[in-house]
Amino acid sequence: MKTPQLSRRGFLTGLTSLAIGSTALGRHLGPKKWDSKMEVAVDVTIATIEGARVHRPYVAVYIEDEAGKVLRTLSLWVQTERRGPRWIPDLRRWWAGSDHDKLVTTVSSATRSAGKYSLAWDGKDDAGKLLNQGKFTVCIEAAREHGTYQLIKKEIEIGKKTFNVKVDGNTEIESANIEYRKRAK
Q: Class assignment of domain 38-182?
C-alpha cells in the first residue's frame, strides 16, 4: 500500500491548525491566578534574648519568586529615625532584592519586642498586582545591633490544596508557622 504524499500547502495548513489548537489549549491550561478568597498567614515569634546591650531586632518578612526576586514585603520592622537607618542594610537579602528606598518609607513600622506576631499575604506583589499560583519562598530575616543575622526561608506551593507548616526557628526568630487558608474575615 502506498503512503499518500502531503503537499506543502496541506502541511502548512495542518501546522497552522496545530498551532492554533495548542494556543487555545495553553490558554485553558495556563497558570491560574491566585484565588482571591485565599491567603497565606505567616506567624512569627521573636525570641527573648537577655543581656545588657540587647536591642530589638530589625525584621523583614517577605515573599520571593522562584528566581529569588522579592515580590512582596509583608512587614518591615525597623527604626527609621536617629541612628536607626544605618542598620537597615543588615537585612542583607531583603535590602539587595527589594525597592528598599520606597518600602522603608511606606511599609516599615517600629521594631517589635519578643513575642508572636501574625501577618497575611493576599497573593499580590508590592505593586498590588494579583499573582499566578505557583512556587514561592517565604523569607523571615532578622538582624540585631550587637547581635546576630539570621535568615529563615521556606518554599511553598500555592494551588488548590491548603497547608499548614511549622518552620524551625533560630537565634533571633524562635519559630514561625505558614498557613495557606481561606481568607480571614
A: mainly beta
